[in-house]
Amino acid sequence: MTGFALQIIGERINPGFKSTKALFDNEDIAGIQALAVKQAEAGARYLNVNIGARALTDPGFMATVIRAIQEVVAIPLSFDFPSADVQKVCLEAYDRAKAGGADPIVNSITEHRWDLMELYKTHGPFKVVFMASERVEDGQAKGNKTAQEVYDTARRCALRLRDEYGMPLSDIFLDMSVSAIIADTTGLNRATLDAIGMIGADPDLKGVHMMGGLSNIGQQMPAKAADGSDLKHTLECAFLTIANPRGFDTVLGTPWRGYHALPDDNYVLQAYRNFLEQTGSNALRAVRKFYKA
Fold first, then answer.
1. Is residue 20 one of the residues assigned to a domain?
2. pTM for the whole structure
3. Using one digit for the tens of pLDDT, what is the confidence trace for 129-161?
4. pLDDT score for 93
């Protein structure tokens, strides 16, 4: 991870990966354990655990997976499911002692899904991933489209977590929702990066973490850039090259991916900077420059 001060939340224990889904389908506990060890040995700071919809229908298996992972790794876990009932099962199965006393992460809460914080009173303390991409307005959930909306939501809810629950800001991970560039004609990437800068510059939010999953950014893009490089991976590094100095310090990703800072003359970084300045049809034309010189 040359050039970046980053921590990785290992993403691979998730049925979105075909090989991991097969482990769940076959109840291959040894295979799940091996995957946990591989991520930990590759430098993951946390392991995200998501068994999909089965968590609702088979909570016993959810608990079994958590206990099995903790038998072989000593790093804390992140529980990825938007249900208070599932999170309760996860928190009750989690053994802090086996993680060196570290608290787990509840992933994720939103302003309109605040009921998960009721667990803080009965099963806390824990850390949280908060989705800064959504807000509540007039009692309805609405997506944030501008940097100001993302920043206002993140600030309001981070300070609420601190003031109402006594949660240290360092226990809060703001998920900044990195968007796919291929469909971004309204400047969502630019808004995310601007919001990261605003949050990073706010002294009242000093210590809060900013994070996101990077795999979406290159969705449906070709494998190779115009200069022959790995387009999707280099695009992820381009985002980090801009975002990390602004305070984006955590990636939900694959620990052995090898994120690194790009030099200013890197082709993909230059194309990404150009893309960030465009909207509408100009943004679509700018996307083609990534893979067609």
1. yes
2. 0.96
3. 999 999 999 999 999 999 999 999 999 999 999
4. 98
**Which is nearest to 44 in space by CA: 35, 31, 52, 57?**
35
Q: What is the pLDDT of residues 45-79, one digit of tens each?
A: 999 999 999 999 999 999 999 999 999 999 999 99
Domain carrying residue 127: 7-291
Report the first-to-last Cα separation within the chain, whole angstroms. 28
Is 2 inside any structural domain? Answer: no
How many domains are there within the chain?
1
For the chain, the average pLDDT equals: 96
The per-residue pLDDT for 2 is 57
In a domain, 70, yes or no: yes
Whether 1 is covered by a domain: the verdict is no
Return the closest-CA partner of residue 248 out of 173, 150, 179.
Answer: 173
**Which CATH number covers residue 229?**
3.20.20.20
